[in-house]
Design goal:
Layout (H helix, E strand, L loop, with lengths): L51 H8 L18 H6 L4 H23 L7 H5 L16 H25 L2 H10 L5 H17 L15 H12 L8 H23 L1 H15 L16 H5 L3 H12 L5 H17 L2 H11 L19 E3 L4 E7 L13 E4 L1 H4 L3 E4 L6 H18 L3 E7 L13 E4 L7 E3 L8 H13 L7 H19 L5 H8 L3 H10 L6 H14 L5 H9 L18 E3 L10 E5 L6 H18 L8 E6 L8 H9 L5 E7 L10 H7 L2 E5 L4 H11 L1 E13 L5 H14 L4 E13 L3 H6 L5 E7 L5 E8 L3
Parallel strand pairs: 4-11, 4-12, 5-9, 5-10, 6-9, 7-8, 10-11
Antiparallel strand pairs: 1-2, 2-3, 2-16, 12-15, 13-14, 15-16
Helix pairs in contact: 3-5, 5-8, 7-9, 12-14, 17-18, 17-23, 18-21, 19-22, 24-25
Length: 801
């Protein structure tokens, strides 16, 4: 059972996994006894050479950064690192309040502060002081002076901290450091501060204590009426402990002590076991997560597999994904047994493939990214994006992506093909299932990169497309077909069309136990007397009374001149052409494939649309695939990501499809839509389309009309403008006029002075004119949104970089 069905006989499951359409991209390795030699994997991933370089790839840093940045080996640009340095203003903001505070405290201690004792005498009884002075008569006056000095010190300390840049200094030097150095620096600051508060507790310290402890002791004495309460050792220790905790508390927050302690305790608890203590920090090649959880045998075996060159990046990502699922489900023992039995081939994809036969893009399966270019160093780009690689991953594809650009702009070459390749690789790791719909005559990637290839209209196609997506609900099946057939029509509503279809599909399934083939469905929608009579006779009996009423309603509505059934039959005729004979469940030799398998298996599916001459049928099929995909991924609890890639989404965007796309973000799914122009989408849906997707991409060559929609979607930003006006200088003195005349004679320009005006104005991030005329060939403007809601502004990407 640990093979997840990958080693079982084909076709023995209730929902068997379709096998590859062509030769697998990697060898299928059967189970092997522990200790038996393993074959060495030939070849290497694109950009990841075999053996030793795989170790470097695993151990390479992948820092967390902004969305869309290629994380593999990323380093902060020099300009961004310089921006993180403290500015001189911040340093002065620390020093000036510190000097002012020391000066004021010096005046206070000497009694040179004007009106220093006014508040003291105002809030204390007169019998504490000698007449007209602030000299104490007894211990109450002395205690009051101590409390007064302590209160002034705290007010002075708070004021200097608020006026100065002390919080920024603390965050810069301590808060931004990783653990445990952050906690250690905060601990050093705590010890230093405590040495000023309790100098007697630190041997060798010779400075005086800050007026805090004495002020608290004096305040307690004034409240209790004397110092007798300090005769109790318990009270004294408790009071000093409270003071110490109040001093330590801000440093604990700066150092993140509580979060770091919980993290270390959790790691120690996970690593506690019969095998030994918590392992030291190890490189990624040695599988430190497994070691911390006590899986030492599995970690050692996988380390040997990596060192011996028997694993590639797909194997590493697949095993890490399996480890994540096993730890989440509490099946660590099953994980260990599977690794010890299969090694690098554990949890291999049902196709047996462990890699693609060919890669055309750079992939990082650890971060789940595919590189599509490089961010251009422009003035409007944040410093962290300067020169960094541009990458896409499931975190941004989960919000769906819209790409618009004319033919030849590079949508397929620079976007659709890399994304398809990345999804195919992630499917081999068990983390993704996807469908890509190729434009007519342009199949994406080789057949060996897919498990299922559906060639609509090709007699040699191994698979056929199930128009009902293996549904047993007539209403659900009717919604698929209604969206596909009339979703792009303004004269027919999809709800009324779905109702008409359900009135036929429900009775037919009740009578024959299956849905009708498309030719039979067309006859029923055209109200053929023979077809309707045969269906009604098949529904004879008391058990089908409800379905007979449904069919009778359909027969009565068919007599109306405005019956939607005729429109449905006319649109269905597009799929009843001779070229499609035997497809869509028509009894051909191809095996029907249902998109519902995507929710159960990490499948790689490609649907090839018919060649030119059947454009309307191709759009109908694309709408059908989109409607079925949005329905089968509604359960967001599946462990893998689901994605649909449309190389040509012309005629696909409808009001119904937009409502479904908006819900995909919460269902662990997304779509990629490529359009030549927004003219392929009804104008009323332009705004909802841009609002439904989280990622938008404008390629070079878009028109100003298309660019205006992008400009509206990206909105405006506040920018600083600098206007320079030159004013002629008029001299009053004769000598000055002579010098100005000589200067004008030599330079040819009058003497002027510059008047500089700096303003903050609101401007479009990208205007329609800039998108249409200033985006170079091979470039695109891309904005991203992650499923967590983090945004990347629209920036220029060099797709050839």
């Amino acid at each position: 059972m640990d093979s997840d069905g990958t080693q079982d006989a084909r076709g023995t499951h209730a929902n068997p996994v379709p096998r590859p359409a062509g030769p697998p991209g990697g060898p299928s390795v059967p189970p092997r006894p522990v200790g038996a030699p393993r074959p060495v994997e030939q070849g290497a991933p694109y950009g990841v050479p075999a053996r030793a370089s795989l170790v470097e790839w695993l151990n390479a840093p992948r820092p967390d950064t902004k969305p869309g940045i290629w994380r593999y080996g990323y380093r902060l640009p020099k300009g961004a690192r310089a921006a993180e340095r403290l500015s001189p203003v911040t340093v002065v903001g620390l020093l000036v309040p510190l000097v002012v505070g020391l000066f004021l405290w010096s005046l206070w201690r000497r009694g040179a502060m004007p009106y220093e004792s006014v508040l003291l005498r105002l809030f204390t009884p007169e019998d504490w002081w000698w007449g007209g002075t602030a000299s104490p008569k007894g211990w109450e006056g002395s205690a009051g002076i101590l409390v007064y000095n302590g209160a002034f010190f705290l007010v002075l300390l708070y004021g200097m901290g608020r006026l100065g840049s002390w919080p920024d200094i603390a965050r810069h030097f301590v808060g931004r450091r990783p653990q445990p150095s952050r906690a250690l620096l905060a601990a050093l600051g705590t010890l230093l501060t405590l040495s000023f508060v309790f100098p007697d507790a630190f041997p060798g310290v010779g400075w005086d204590a800050l007026p805090l402890v004495d002020a608290v002791v004096a305040l307690v004495a004034l409240i209790s009426g004397g110092f007798d309460v300090f005769g109790s050792t318990v009270f004294k220790v408790g009071l000093y402990t409270v003071i110490a905790l109040l001093v330590v508390w801000p440093f604990a927050r700066i150092g993140g002590w509580w979060a770091y302690t919980k993290e270390r305790l959790a790691a120690r608890k996970a690593a506690a076991g019969p095998t030994g203590p918590t392992p030291a920090d190890r490189p990624r090649e040695q599988w430190p997560d497994l070691r911390e959880a006590g899986q030492y045998e599995a970690a050692e075996l996988l380390t040997a597999e990596v060192a011996g060159g028997r694993m590639n990046d797909v194997d590493c990502a697949r095993v890490e994904h399996a480890w994540t699922l096993s730890r989440r489900d509490g099946q660590l023992a099953r994980f260990r047994d599977t690794v010890l039995r299969h090694g690098a081939t554990a949890w291999v994809h049902p196709s047996g493939a462990r890699d693609l036969s060919r890669r055309t893009a750079r992939h990082d399966l650890v971060a789940g990214q595919v590189r599509i270019g490089r961010w251009v160093e422009a003035e409007r780009a944040p410093l962290v994006y300067h020169g960094a690689g541009a990458a896409l991953g499931p975190d941004v594809l989960g919000t769906s992506l819209l790409a618009v650009g004319p033919s030849g702009a590079g949508k397929t070459r620079h976007l659709i093909e890399p994304v398809t390749e990345a999804l195919a690789l992630r499917a081999l790791t068990g983390q993704c299932a996807f469908v890509t719909v190729s434009a007519p005559g342009t199949p994406l990637a080789a057949d060996s990169a897919f498990d299922v290839v559906v060639r609509i209209g090709d007699r040699d196609s191994v698979h056929d497309l199930d128009p009902y997506a293996d549904s047993d609900d007539p209403d659900e099946a009717a919604s698929f077909l209604a969206e596909a057939l009339v979703g792009d029509l303004d004269t027919v509503g999809t709800d009324s069309a779905a109702t008409a279809l359900a009135q036929v599909l429900g009775p037919y399934r009740a009578a024959y136990g299956r849905f009708p083939a498309l030719p039979a469905l067309r006859e029923l929608l055209e109200s053929e007397p023979a077809a309707l009579s045969a269906l009604r006779e098949a529904l004879a009996g008391d058990g089908h009374a409800v379905m007979r009423r449904e069919l009778d309603v359909r027969i009565r509505q068919a007599a109306s001149p405005t019956d939607v059934g005729r429109v449905l039959a006319d649109r269905l005729a597009l799929l009843n052409r001779p070229v499609f004979d035997g497809f869509f469940g028509g009894g051909g030799t191809a095996r029907p494939f249902s998109l519902r398998s995507l929710a159960e298996h990490p499948l790689r599916v490609r649907v090839d649309l018919p060649e030119h001459g059947h454009e309307e049928a191709a759009r109908l099929i694309t709408r059908l695939v989109l409607a079925q995909f949005c329905a089968v991924v509604r359960d967001g609890q599946r462990p893998h990501f689901a994605c649909l890639v449309l190389d040509d989404a012309t005629g696909t965007v409808t009001a119904g499809s937009l409502r479904r796309i908006q819900r995909l973000r919460t269902q662990n799914a997304g779509v990629v839509l490529a359009l030549r122009t927004l003219g392929d989408v009804p104008e009323a849906l332009h705004g909802p389309l841009y609002g439904a997707v989280g990622c938008r991409m404008a390629f070079s060559g878009v028109t100003t009309w298309d660019g205006s929609r992008f400009a509206q979607a990206w909105g405006t930003a506040w920018v600083q403008t600098r206007d320079v006006a030159k004013h002629t200088v008029f001299a009053d003195q004769p000598m000055t006029r002579a010098i100005h005349a000589l200067r004008k004679l030599v330079t040819g320009r009058a003497v002027t002075t510059d008047a500089v005006t700096v303003r903050t104005v609101e401007r479009e991030r990208w205007s329609a004119s800039e998108l249409a005329h200033e985006v170079p060939p091979g470039h695109a403007v891309l904005s991203l949104t992650t499923v967590e809601g983090e945004h990347a502004p629209p920036l220029l990407v060099n797709l050839r970089g």
